[in-house]
């Protein structure tokens, strides 16, 4: 299940209960468009998504050699034990960057 951060989500006890139910049913939770909307670090920590979907905006910055934000997002995900999905990967260089 994807949660997009382009819409503000109230992380209420009811929301947490529903997410827990989905996880028990076998669904994974992905936070889509990470870094471009309403999320904050406390929210990511509380939500505990299975995946952070890195917005293609950050991936496209690789073409100009600016990977600082991309590195921060992937580093954060690694520290929190969250898998990442990079959106908008189109070149062999971008693939090589994201696949160790």
Structure overview:
It is built from five helices and four strands; from the N terminus they run E-H-E-H-E-H-H-E-H. Strands 1-2-3-4 form a four-stranded parallel sheet. The protein is elongated. It has 100 residues and is of the alpha/beta class. 44% of the residues lie in helices and 16% in strands. It has helices at 13-24, 41-47, 56-60, 68-80, 92-98, and strands at 2-4, 30-34, 51-54, 83-86.
Descriptors:
100 residues, alpha/beta, elongated
The tally of beta strands, per DSSP, is 4
Give unreliable regions as ranges: none
The H-and-E topology, N to C, reads as: EHEHEHHEH
Alpha-carbon distance between the two ends: 26 Å
In DSSP terms, counting alpha (H) and pi (I) runs of 4 or more, how many helices? 5
As laid out across the biggest beta sheet, the strand order is: 1-2-3-4
Which SSEs are present, and which pair or pack?
Elements: E1 2-4, H1 13-24, E2 30-34, H2 41-47, E3 51-54, H3 56-60, H4 68-80, E4 83-86, H5 92-98
Parallel strand pairs: 1-2, 2-3, 3-4
In short:
The chain is 44% helix and 16% strand.
